[in-house]
Amino acid sequence: MIEGQGEGSERPATGPVVDDGGALRAEGPSSTPPTSPPPAGEASGTASPGQGDQAADPASSEQIEQDLDALLADTQRERDEYLDLAKRTKADFENYRKRMAAEVQAASVRGKAGLAAELVGVIDNLERALAAAGIEVAAEDAPEEPLAQGILLTYRELNGVLARSGVESFDPKGERFDPVFHEALSTLPVEGAGSGTVVEVLQKGYRLGEQLIRPARVVVSE
Questions:
Q1: pLDDT tens for each residue of 181-200
Q2: Contacts 24+ apart (CB under 8 A), 49-54
Protein backbone atom coordinates (compact mmCIF):
# COMPACT_ATOMS: atom_id res chain seq x y z
CA MET A 1 0.00 0.00 0.00
CA ILE A 2 1.27 3.36 -0.98
CA GLU A 3 1.96 5.67 1.86
CA GLY A 4 -0.57 8.38 2.50
CA GLN A 5 -3.32 6.42 0.77
CA GLY A 6 -5.78 4.42 2.75
CA GLU A 7 -9.05 2.72 2.26
CA GLY A 8 -11.08 5.77 3.24
CA SER A 9 -9.08 8.20 1.15
CA GLU A 10 -10.65 9.65 -1.96
CA ARG A 11 -9.80 8.03 -5.23
CA PRO A 12 -8.14 10.45 -7.54
CA ALA A 13 -10.07 11.39 -10.67
CA THR A 14 -9.09 9.28 -13.55
CA GLY A 15 -8.29 10.76 -16.88
CA PRO A 16 -7.22 9.52 -20.22
CA VAL A 17 -4.46 6.95 -20.20
CA VAL A 18 -2.35 5.40 -22.87
CA ASP A 19 -2.95 1.74 -23.51
CA ASP A 20 -0.35 -0.72 -24.64
CA GLY A 21 -0.90 0.17 -28.26
CA GLY A 22 -0.32 3.88 -27.66
CA ALA A 23 -3.98 4.92 -28.11
CA LEU A 24 -5.78 7.20 -25.73
CA ARG A 25 -8.70 5.76 -23.82
CA ALA A 26 -10.95 7.00 -21.04
CA GLU A 27 -10.67 5.23 -17.80
CA GLY A 28 -13.00 5.39 -14.90
CA PRO A 29 -16.61 6.68 -14.63
CA SER A 30 -17.58 9.79 -16.62
CA SER A 31 -18.83 12.83 -14.77
CA THR A 32 -21.40 13.59 -17.53
CA PRO A 33 -24.66 11.76 -17.03
CA PRO A 34 -25.99 9.92 -20.07
CA THR A 35 -28.74 11.59 -22.04
CA SER A 36 -31.99 9.73 -22.46
CA PRO A 37 -33.68 9.65 -25.88
CA PRO A 38 -36.63 12.07 -26.31
CA PRO A 39 -40.15 10.66 -26.11
CA ALA A 40 -41.72 9.63 -29.33
CA GLY A 41 -43.44 12.47 -31.05
CA GLU A 42 -41.50 15.21 -29.22
CA ALA A 43 -38.25 15.16 -31.21
CA SER A 44 -37.52 18.44 -32.99
CA GLY A 45 -40.85 19.87 -31.70
CA THR A 46 -42.90 18.08 -34.36
CA ALA A 47 -46.17 16.27 -33.78
CA SER A 48 -46.54 12.67 -34.66
CA PRO A 49 -48.77 11.77 -37.62
CA GLY A 50 -52.47 12.05 -36.80
CA GLN A 51 -51.93 14.25 -33.75
CA GLY A 52 -53.54 17.35 -35.44
CA ASP A 53 -56.66 15.39 -36.34
CA GLN A 54 -56.93 14.10 -32.80
CA ALA A 55 -56.58 17.66 -31.43
CA ALA A 56 -59.53 18.99 -33.54
CA ASP A 57 -62.59 19.80 -31.40
CA PRO A 58 -65.91 18.60 -32.90
CA ALA A 59 -67.81 21.09 -30.72
CA SER A 60 -65.87 23.99 -32.28
CA SER A 61 -66.72 22.83 -35.82
CA GLU A 62 -70.40 22.58 -34.90
CA GLN A 63 -70.33 26.08 -33.39
CA ILE A 64 -68.75 27.49 -36.57
CA GLU A 65 -71.49 25.90 -38.67
CA GLN A 66 -74.16 27.35 -36.40
CA ASP A 67 -72.57 30.80 -36.65
CA LEU A 68 -72.47 30.57 -40.45
CA ASP A 69 -76.13 29.50 -40.57
CA ALA A 70 -77.11 32.40 -38.32
CA LEU A 71 -75.14 34.84 -40.47
CA LEU A 72 -76.78 33.50 -43.63
CA ALA A 73 -80.24 33.81 -42.05
CA ASP A 74 -79.54 37.44 -41.05
CA THR A 75 -78.31 38.21 -44.55
CA GLN A 76 -81.43 36.71 -46.14
CA ARG A 77 -83.68 38.60 -43.73
CA GLU A 78 -81.98 41.92 -44.55
CA ARG A 79 -82.23 41.12 -48.26
CA ASP A 80 -85.97 40.51 -47.95
CA GLU A 81 -86.41 43.74 -45.99
CA TYR A 82 -84.57 45.77 -48.63
CA LEU A 83 -86.53 44.13 -51.45
CA ASP A 84 -89.80 44.88 -49.67
CA LEU A 85 -88.72 48.47 -49.12
CA ALA A 86 -87.80 48.82 -52.79
CA LYS A 87 -91.19 47.44 -53.86
CA ARG A 88 -93.07 49.82 -51.57
CA THR A 89 -91.00 52.76 -52.77
CA LYS A 90 -91.68 51.86 -56.39
CA ALA A 91 -95.42 51.52 -55.73
CA ASP A 92 -95.52 54.85 -53.87
CA PHE A 93 -93.67 56.57 -56.71
CA GLU A 94 -96.02 55.05 -59.31
CA ASN A 95 -99.06 56.25 -57.34
CA TYR A 96 -97.48 59.70 -57.00
CA ARG A 97 -96.79 59.83 -60.73
CA LYS A 98 -100.37 58.86 -61.58
CA ARG A 99 -101.77 61.35 -59.09
CA MET A 100 -99.61 64.16 -60.45
CA ALA A 101 -100.58 63.29 -64.03
CA ALA A 102 -104.27 63.39 -63.06
CA GLU A 103 -103.80 66.72 -61.30
CA VAL A 104 -101.99 68.19 -64.31
CA GLN A 105 -104.78 66.95 -66.59
CA ALA A 106 -107.45 68.40 -64.30
CA ALA A 107 -105.61 71.73 -64.12
CA SER A 108 -105.40 71.82 -67.92
CA VAL A 109 -109.14 71.16 -68.20
CA ARG A 110 -109.90 73.86 -65.62
CA GLY A 111 -107.71 76.32 -67.51
CA LYS A 112 -109.44 75.58 -70.81
CA ALA A 113 -112.87 75.78 -69.21
CA GLY A 114 -112.06 79.12 -67.58
CA LEU A 115 -110.82 80.61 -70.85
CA ALA A 116 -113.78 79.23 -72.78
CA ALA A 117 -116.21 80.74 -70.24
CA GLU A 118 -114.69 84.16 -70.99
CA LEU A 119 -114.78 83.68 -74.76
CA VAL A 120 -118.36 82.45 -75.09
CA GLY A 121 -119.57 85.88 -73.99
CA VAL A 122 -117.59 87.45 -76.86
CA ILE A 123 -119.12 84.96 -79.28
CA ASP A 124 -122.61 85.90 -78.02
CA ASN A 125 -121.92 89.57 -78.79
CA LEU A 126 -120.61 88.73 -82.27
CA GLU A 127 -123.73 86.68 -82.97
CA ARG A 128 -125.91 89.64 -81.95
CA ALA A 129 -123.94 91.95 -84.20
CA LEU A 130 -124.28 89.57 -87.15
CA ALA A 131 -128.00 89.11 -86.48
CA ALA A 132 -128.49 92.92 -86.41
CA ALA A 133 -126.71 93.14 -89.77
CA GLY A 134 -128.92 90.39 -91.18
CA ILE A 135 -126.02 88.00 -91.74
CA GLU A 136 -126.45 84.29 -91.28
CA VAL A 137 -123.53 82.83 -89.37
CA ALA A 138 -123.96 79.53 -91.21
CA ALA A 139 -123.91 81.17 -94.66
CA GLU A 140 -121.08 80.00 -96.88
CA ASP A 141 -120.76 83.26 -98.79
CA ALA A 142 -119.03 86.09 -96.96
CA PRO A 143 -120.80 89.46 -96.92
CA GLU A 144 -119.50 92.14 -99.28
CA GLU A 145 -119.31 94.85 -96.62
CA PRO A 146 -115.82 94.81 -95.08
CA LEU A 147 -117.01 95.42 -91.51
CA ALA A 148 -119.60 92.64 -91.61
CA GLN A 149 -117.07 90.39 -93.29
CA GLY A 150 -114.52 91.05 -90.54
CA ILE A 151 -117.08 90.33 -87.82
CA LEU A 152 -118.06 87.05 -89.45
CA LEU A 153 -114.45 85.96 -89.89
CA THR A 154 -113.67 86.80 -86.25
CA TYR A 155 -116.70 84.85 -85.11
CA ARG A 156 -115.69 81.78 -87.10
CA GLU A 157 -112.09 81.99 -85.92
CA LEU A 158 -113.13 82.10 -82.27
CA ASN A 159 -115.37 79.10 -82.74
CA GLY A 160 -112.49 77.26 -84.42
CA VAL A 161 -110.17 78.00 -81.48
CA LEU A 162 -112.73 76.66 -79.02
CA ALA A 163 -113.37 73.57 -81.13
CA ARG A 164 -109.65 72.77 -81.31
CA SER A 165 -109.52 73.01 -77.51
CA GLY A 166 -112.37 70.52 -77.16
CA VAL A 167 -115.08 73.09 -76.43
CA GLU A 168 -118.33 72.60 -78.32
CA SER A 169 -121.67 74.35 -78.34
CA PHE A 170 -124.99 72.51 -78.13
CA ASP A 171 -128.52 73.49 -79.11
CA PRO A 172 -131.08 71.35 -77.24
CA LYS A 173 -134.21 72.45 -79.13
CA GLY A 174 -136.73 69.61 -79.24
CA GLU A 175 -134.92 67.66 -76.50
CA ARG A 176 -136.23 66.74 -73.10
CA PHE A 177 -135.42 69.39 -70.52
CA ASP A 178 -132.36 68.45 -68.45
CA PRO A 179 -131.69 70.70 -65.45
CA VAL A 180 -128.02 69.70 -65.50
CA PHE A 181 -127.38 71.17 -68.96
CA HIS A 182 -130.36 73.47 -69.45
CA GLU A 183 -131.55 76.61 -67.74
CA ALA A 184 -135.27 77.26 -68.17
CA LEU A 185 -136.02 80.97 -68.42
CA SER A 186 -139.75 80.55 -69.04
CA THR A 187 -142.46 78.03 -69.89
CA LEU A 188 -145.05 78.17 -72.63
CA PRO A 189 -148.03 76.06 -73.54
CA VAL A 190 -147.15 74.68 -76.98
CA GLU A 191 -149.60 72.62 -78.94
CA GLY A 192 -148.20 69.29 -80.01
CA ALA A 193 -145.20 69.46 -77.66
CA GLY A 194 -145.03 67.27 -74.64
CA SER A 195 -144.61 68.78 -71.23
CA GLY A 196 -140.99 69.50 -70.34
CA THR A 197 -139.77 69.78 -73.92
CA VAL A 198 -137.35 72.51 -74.98
CA VAL A 199 -139.27 74.54 -77.55
CA GLU A 200 -136.94 77.49 -77.95
CA VAL A 201 -133.23 78.13 -77.32
CA LEU A 202 -132.45 81.70 -76.30
CA GLN A 203 -128.73 81.09 -75.79
CA LYS A 204 -126.64 78.09 -76.75
CA GLY A 205 -124.85 76.05 -74.18
CA TYR A 206 -121.14 75.12 -74.14
CA ARG A 207 -119.31 72.17 -72.67
CA LEU A 208 -115.80 70.74 -72.56
CA GLY A 209 -116.20 66.99 -72.76
CA GLU A 210 -118.48 66.14 -69.84
CA GLN A 211 -117.74 69.41 -68.05
CA LEU A 212 -120.41 72.06 -68.45
CA ILE A 213 -119.10 75.53 -69.23
CA ARG A 214 -122.44 77.25 -69.62
CA PRO A 215 -125.97 75.80 -69.64
CA ALA A 216 -128.25 76.43 -72.56
CA ARG A 217 -130.91 79.03 -71.74
CA VAL A 218 -134.21 77.73 -73.04
CA VAL A 219 -137.99 77.98 -73.06
CA VAL A 220 -139.80 74.83 -71.95
CA SER A 221 -143.28 73.69 -72.85
CA GLU A 222 -145.82 73.28 -70.10
A1: 999 999 988 888 888 899 99
A2: none
